Amino acid sequence: MANDGKTRTTGRREFLSQVSAAAVAGLAMSTASRAEEGQEPAAMPTIELGKYRVSRLVAGWNPIGGYSYLGSHTDRHMKDYFTTDRTVEFLQACAAAGITLHQFSPADNTAEILRKVRERGAKMEFICLDSNRPGIAGMIESTKPIAMVHHGGATDSLFAQDKSGEVHDYVKEAHDRGVLAGVSAHNPDCIRRIADEGWEVDFFMTCFYFLTRKHAPGKDDALPTLEIGYPFHRADPSAMTQVVRQVRQPCLGFKILAAGRLADDQNSVREAFRFAFQNIKPTDGVIVGMYPRFFDEIRANAQYAREYGKA
Predict the structure, then answer these.
(1) Contact between residue 310 and residue 39 where contact means Cβ atoms under 8 Å apart
(2) What's the pLDDT score for residue 197?
(3) Domain span at residue 255?
(4) Residue 141: which pLDDT band, with cuts at 50, 70 and 90?
């Protein structure tokens, strides 16, 4: 039987919709079945951020916002999946798995998402990653985070332009507004310098990869290739975690899976978690973005955090 293009397109959309619904249902069913069987998971390892005790595994935001670091098609795939309702369900599932902290970035539906998560009783705190100092007061009012964190890309750029004072002013403003203040960076030298200068920073977000590096190490000329996105150098995690171990403040390592490049199979994911927890301080945690469309990444990642992040 012949089908026209419209029929094929509609069928494909229906199929993807069914797959998405099945993935969400699978998350709910797996959590419910464990509860019915009386199987309580081992306690999630925790750390302290200021006066708050939170899980060492933090739910990241990039997939929710459609930032895959794998190209525009994957970006769109993720953003289409994470509707407001599905994001709320995702965060509820994270809380049920013992993940009690979510790092978010501002978006049009952020306030609505966090309000619904709270209204549904999820035991979860929130930290905001942003660089808009004039907007700090409004963001705190609308989303009620426990901390404001200066965005890593903006941090690296301002330090490179000799404008680190603007990052410091952001930290001071956050404290003046009554919340914890953090700084994120991809360049380990930024973290080291802030620590050496004694800024009143409560914690850091530390990228395992120096993504704002424009050229290969030691090269002054442009790379002889087309732009392929962001450079993920194998030696970067060791360089950042060395700094992480030297600073006294808690650090939240992110991109431990190299934006999916270390997630081809669960053995690779498990190894990435092992490396991360063995190379950061006991007072540190990790932020991991998850995309549970086809696999229960929440449950798997929570298990790896319990296995390798325990004291």
Answers:
(1) no
(2) 98
(3) 45-217+226-309
(4) very high
Q: CA–CA distance from 292 to each of 78, 267, 269 (Å)? A: 10, 17, 14
**Residue 3: pLDDT band by 50, 70, 90 thresholds?**
very low
- Domain assignment present for residue 11? The answer is no
The total of structural domains in the chain comes to 1
Q: What CATH number is associated with residue 86?
A: 3.20.20.100
**Residue of 81, 92, 79 whose CA lies nearest to 20:** 81
pTM of the full structure: 0.86
Decide if 290 is inside a domain: yes
Q: What is the mean pLDDT of residues 99-106?
A: 98
How does pLDDT run across 200-245, given as a tens digit for each residue?
Answer: 999 999 999 999 987 445 555 555 565 667 889 999 999 999 999 9
Q: Tell me the CA distances in angstroms from 290 to 13, 30, 97, one per residue in order.
A: 22, 17, 13
CA 204/CA 189 separation, integer angstroms: 13
CA distance between the termini of the chain:
62
Please write down the long-range contacts of 150-155, taking CB distance under 8 Å and 24 or more positions apart.
150/182, 150/183, 150/184, 151/105, 151/184, 152/184, 152/185, 152/186, 152/205, 152/207, 152/212, 153/186, 153/211, 153/212, 155/131, 155/183, 155/184, 155/185, 155/187, 155/190
Asked if residue 18 is part of any domain, the answer here is no
For position 224, what pLDDT does the model report? Answer: 58
Q: In this structure, is residue 12 part of a structural domain?
A: no
Q: Residue 212 and residue 185: Cα distance in Å, rounded? A: 9
